[in-house]
Amino acid sequence: MAGTDRTRAEAAAAAGGGMGPVIILVEPQLGENIGMAARAMLNCGLGALRLVRPRDDWPNRHAIAAASGADGIIHAAQVFETTEAAIADLKAVYATTARPRDMTTDVVTPGAAARRMKDDAASGLRSGVLFGKEAKGLTNDDVALADAVLTVPLNPAFTSLNLAQAVFTIGYEWYQLEDDTPAVEQAIPKETRPANKDELLGLFEHLERELDDSGFFHVREKKPIMVRNIRNVLQRARFTEQEVRTFRGIVTSLSQKRKR
Fold this sequence. Notes:
This protein has 2 domains: 6-176, Alpha/beta knot (3-Layer(aba) Sandwich), CATH 3.40.1280; 197-259. Strands 3-2-1-6-4-7-5 form a 7-stranded parallel β-sheet. It has 11 helices and 7 strands. It has helices at 6-14, 31-43, 61-67, 71-76, 83-87, 110-122, 140-143, 163-176, 197-214, 223-236, 241-259; strands at 22-26, 49-52, 78-80, 92-96, 106-108, 127-131, 148-150. The model is unreliable at 12-16 (pLDDT under 50).
């Protein structure tokens, strides 16, 4: 279960996913698929799972095994006999489908649905997302209960998603609305840190002295421009403190060999 903080995972499951959308699986067929859907939910901070007439007995040991640590969601899952009962307390419901339906209704992407659900949640209103059985999806009667159809934009020639993939797609869009992870982040080993300007300037000056001694700046009037270009290149490397020391060691080694 790499990358998992079990304490935080269990806390999230116990909280029921806050005001996140309720995930409603209508007539799910395999316990394994329910478990993998629960795993996808917890990946995205969702905790409320409802099942409508699951085909196999419930609780289901295969679901727990496939949940890979999202056991809290499985144990807290509610089971209903009808879709109507499963959505009775919800303000808005979205029906997931890849097939066109002969109905006049809004068709939204996961991103648009997540934004709508987030706005509702800010007012204390809960939303839910319906997912149909693995083989056939939702019936038209189930879709008719929804406020909008939710469709994932995919390759028109192949739009098939398994249950966990579909749940994750919606959950991911929800999670991204509050996630503040930088789009680009430098990974730095714990034993070092980013080099500060004093260390970088020491590297620049060390390198420039050795280049001067070796005759690299033989056209003196071009030296200022060449120095700026070299510094710009090295600045983009985003050295750590350890890398500065290593690079200065390389410069020293090369210069000593030349001076022998």
